[in-house]
Amino acid sequence: MLYMHVGILSAFGSVLSLQAPPHRATPHLHAATSVSGGYSASYDAAGNMQCRVPSSATTCAGTATGQALTWDVEGRLSNWQNTTTNPTVTAKYFYDGEGQRVIQQALPLPRIPV
User: Fold this and answer.
1) What DSSP assignment string belongs to 15-73?
2) pLDDT at 35 (0 to 100)
3) Rounded to an integer, what is the distance from CA 95 to the centroid of its chain?
4) Does the pLDDT of residue 25 top 60, yes or no?
5) Fewest Cβ atoms nearer than 10 Å: which of 8, 41, 100, 105?
6) Cβ-based neighbour number of residue 92 at 10 Å
7) CA distance linking residue 21 with residue 45, whole number of Å
8) 8-12, 63-67, 104-108: which range is least confident on average?
């Protein structure tokens, strides 16, 4: 891993791209948008990741097919789903009054062998 003088991630593996969110002139610290292995991601104006793909089989560009992430008004992860449309696996996150995550609910529930 290589870092530039101000701590911005500049290389991980062989190729890394950084994206500047619309409200910033420079990339968000550590906001990788693509890596040579096929990983890519997209971010909202606040710098929260909205979409991520672990391989080149899905995409965050155009009609997104990658994993979808949504955030609450406090900037905390509230939902995750394995695809942007017709997900088969989802997770919801709940927080207490102090902002600490207290529940992670994943569906479908894992099967426990009997």
Assistant:
1) -EEE---TT-SSPPTT-EEEETTS-EEEE-TTS-EEEEESSTTS-SSSS--SEEEEE-T
2) 64
3) 19
4) no
5) 100
6) 15
7) 5
8) 8-12
The string of pLDDT tens digits covering residues 40-49 is 888 888 888 8
What is the spatial distance between Cα 76 and Cα 94, in angstroms, rounded to a whole number?
A: 9
Residue with the two structure tokens 């939902």: 79
Counting Cβ atoms within 10 Å, is residue 51 exposed (0-12), middle (13-18) or buried (19+)? buried
Which amino acid type is present at position 68? A
Nearest CA among 69, 82, 35, 70 for reference residue 55? 35
How many residues belong to the chain? Answer: 114
Question: What token pair was written down for 46?
Answer: 């606040």
pLDDT band for 53, please (50, 70, 90 cuts): confident
Within 8 A by CB and 6+ apart from 23, the residues are 45
CA nearest neighbour of 80 among 112, 34, 48: 48
